[in-house]
Amino acid sequence: MQIRNAEIGDMEAVVRVYRAAKDYMDRTGNETQWERGYPAEAMIREDIASRRLYVVEEDRCIHAVFYFGLEEDETYRRIYDGAWKNDEPYGVIHRVGSDGAVRGVIRAVVDFCLQTVKNLRIDTHENNKTMQHVLQKCGFERCGIIYLQNGDARIAYHLVV
């Protein structure tokens, strides 16, 4: 697997991957994490322009997409029913989507991000059992609950190496 910055020419493949990820969520009991059409094309374009959207390729075909940034996430400022492992600068991983065609995507994403920063945070919906399992398998620890700007709760995970 290769990981690179997404480019505007990848838009069709990125949308396809996100659609496949949403279909998987719907089939596995996680219908409410992403509404249909999320992330919107405008958000994808913004992520590409900011150089924070990445694609995971195998045999020159895009199979996964994710957002990675070295930034403070507003929704991570307050955590409930727990605590972050530290208050050091961190990287955030968001909007991970896979078409399901290749295995080991999350491990590859985490390894890629760890090349930049050894302190990672991510969150997921309580119904996203697949992501919860894979995050724990990659060494993330469940730290508590955060709330998105719209008030939706998410399980917060933290990895420090």
- N to C succession of SSEs: EHHEEEHEHEE
Please identify, by name, the CATH architecture.
3-Layer(aba) Sandwich
Low-confidence stretches: none
Going by helix content, strand content and strand pairing, the class is alpha+beta
Dominant shape: globular
Number of strands: 7
Spatial arrangement of strands, main beta sheet: 1-2-3-4-5-7-6
Tell me the span between the first and last alpha carbons: 23 Å
The tally of helices reads 4
Number of domains: 1
Predict the CATH topology: Aminopeptidase
CATH superfamily: Gcn5-related N-acetyltransferase (GNAT)
Topology:
Layout: E1 2-5, H1 11-27, H2 41-49, E2 53-58, E3 61-70, E4 91-98, H3 105-114, E5 119-124, H4 129-137, E6 141-147, E7 153-160
Parallel strand pairs: 4-5
Antiparallel strand pairs: 1-2, 2-3, 3-4, 5-7, 6-7
